[in-house]
Amino acid sequence: MIFAAILAGGTGNRMGIVEKPKQFLLLGNKPIIIHTIEKFYINPNFDEIIVLCPKQWINHTKDLISRYINDSNNIKVIEGGNLRNDTIMNAVKYIENSYELNEEFIIVTHDSVRPFITHRIIEENIKYTIEHGSCDTVIPSTDTIVESEDGKFISSIPNRQNMYQGQTPQSFKILKLKELYNNMSNEEKNLLTDASKIFSINNEKVFLVKGEVSNIKITYPHDLKVANSILKNGL
Amino acid sequence: MIFAAILAGGTGNRMGIVEKPKQFLLLGNKPIIIHTIEKFYINPNFDEIIVLCPKQWINHTKDLISRYINDSNNIKVIEGGNLRNDTIMNAVKYIENSYELNEEFIIVTHDSVRPFITHRIIEENIKYTIEHGSCDTVIPSTDTIVESEDGKFISSIPNRQNMYQGQTPQSFKILKLKELYNNMSNEEKNLLTDASKIFSINNEKVFLVKGEVSNIKITYPHDLKVANSILKNGL
């Protein structure tokens, strides 16, 4: 079975200040998250699309989905976790509770605020995860990347031709993901800022899928302007 | 003495196809390169501003400068080199031929297509180059950075908190720069895609100056849209 996990944030701002998360802002005539879900919805490979969002936004997300998407039977909205990987593991738990997990099950995890994901990127994530066990979507780094351990002086400047900027999806064989994650200490888990790292630090192969410059993450207000421009005219 | 080197490209396209380089496109009501030069021109610290551009664009660049800038006596336009570092070394040669170089001379090198450089960034480049010998302007990486040696599978995912995206200026004590560069083999020189690497691979300190997200490089057509939007409304 093949699942999509749309990552729409964790349990929300712990300061208690609840702003409307970016994924609910309008892009063209519908919310960003709906654009994103649709890209997976129209792909016939997915058995279920799991949307993970903060608890207080679950109902709103469900409302949006039923308003914008005709037959939303295979779309589930559940609560995310505190950290990105907690959110992904919540999706894994949901799948385990609903189906009998086997080693062929795969999950394609994607940021809800990357609405310009293409059909090709999704297809390649599925294909190469089946083949290699895990995929990460990347583009060659346009900037020189500089490493600094103390934040004051350069430690090294790695060869630019080896450096890539991570996008999403990141895709995994679910049983392997679960096994690797559960074998890590809490300390190790807290250091992971990236899901592909669960595989890479365990020396498991992660295949690179070519992303697109247009597969932007909408984080800052100016990203939304760029996104509206991409929507109208392309990149 | 303190010099600025505005890097506006090398000797041009070796295929013989001459398109108008990006730095000459209009941003608001004047060419990108004029915005950039002005940021250095209004800073009283610079003894000379050296603009390096392809041979066939030298006259055009001079014309633009005299059209847009009132008193352009301390702005020189000279030919760039094939590679970025050749271009920087052309500036060094020009300075050597014009002045008696001493170890206090510094050069602030900057992309001509980064017009949103701020006064603070320039000031800090000067200050910390005097103090430490070299500076690089960077912002913390927003994306996860992925390293791959074969371009197919991930080799490593470095800790994101140690990773920075390089911008410009990159600033150097000139005599040290020259000495380090001349001690490198041609093979080593050809591998350098970045000027700060001349210092870092020789274990010389390169101090990090905090850049700005708005200090964008105008490379793609959509960057020019973003730039026009920054010009009007800020980021």
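The longest helix of chain A spans residues 84-98.
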